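Write out structure tokens for Sugar ABC transporter substrate-binding protein.
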Amino acid sequence: MRRTSTTALALLATAALTLSACGRSESDDTEATQGADVSSGKATGTITVWAMGAEGEALPELAKEFEEENPGAKVNVTAIPWDSAHDKFTTAITADSTPDAAMVGTTWMGEFAGLDALDPLPSNIDTSGFFSGAQKTTEVDGTSYGIPWYVETRLLFYRTDLAEKAGYDEAPTDWQGLHDMAKAMQDKAGAKWGIGLQAGGTGSWQSIMPFAWGEGASLTADDAYTFDTPEMLKAVQYYQSFFTDGISNTSAPTQPTTEPDFASGKVPMFISGPWMMSAVEKVGGDGFKDKYSVAKIPEGSAGSSSFVGGSDFVVFKSSKERDTAWKFVQFLAEPETQVKWYEMSTDLPSVQSAWDDPALAGDDKLKVFGEQLETAKAPPSYPTWEQVVANFDTEMEKVTKTGADPKKALESVQQQADSIGTGQ
């Protein structure tokens, strides 16, 4: 999921719809299941494919290329609005009327696999070329149920011209450096707020977890959630410091930084995904792309990490054209197809080799997204993840807006998580 129009809204929708989590349990040691091999030769027959948002509108054009390569095959794409997609999928699963293949939000994989609706990835589809964090979004209990179709991750956006006024010629690489730079943006560069961070609320876990992962935090152990840990506490205390020190706005809405705030210099730093590049450049006008840059999330004691999102592509067990459906999925995972899709949609490739293409390799900012994806992580695949993380978001809002004790907040999250369970 991506962009303000697709990714950002979709990620918010997943929480509102109480969807399931992406990735897999970090402690999972379940033996993987593999599906039957995809046959060799050309695809034949007609398949129905569902896709959401802008991707659903653009996919038919790409599907024509698959049809040209496979004259006996036909792909019928149905575009579905994000806000109704989850209910449409669950209704179709219950009625055994699913499409043959579909774009599926990474946060839905655990739920749909738990409903026994997804076909395990065929054993002869190679997954070694995907970013590892992205590949894990397809895995539930050790079994992969699709491919990561496209990816996104989050970086630090910062105004280079204002950073220079603040005394910085590059972005910081550690936590203290980020805090100091944000303060200097206020004191020396005239910024209202040093950095725009989400002050709790729906989806705020996506902003906090990169710092927790940077400290080596693990969200699960022995089929249980683990929020009340020293690593998580250190990350939350650090995140809170931006608000208690007056560097970030405690009244910030769900989207803590608007494009106009960044363009005007009111908020010269924020953390977000690749869709924001075109958004800020559009508002900033001619030459603005030279006034900002991006950098990896500053390192904790365990290194730099970030949240990996995007969408996966799956085949449903009920498909009557399984072989052709998987061949279409294979087509979507080919490096050259991934580059074409990027040029059509600006969705970032999940296949690492696609990043060598000049369309991506020639963009210095995109290179940084590619570097961050090498260490980006996804949350666990437990069916109850969205329910549990909603409580986390609520507690973090108390931490950022009222100065609540991070330790007590995490103890409350842990208690609620233990009560809800993992749903395994």
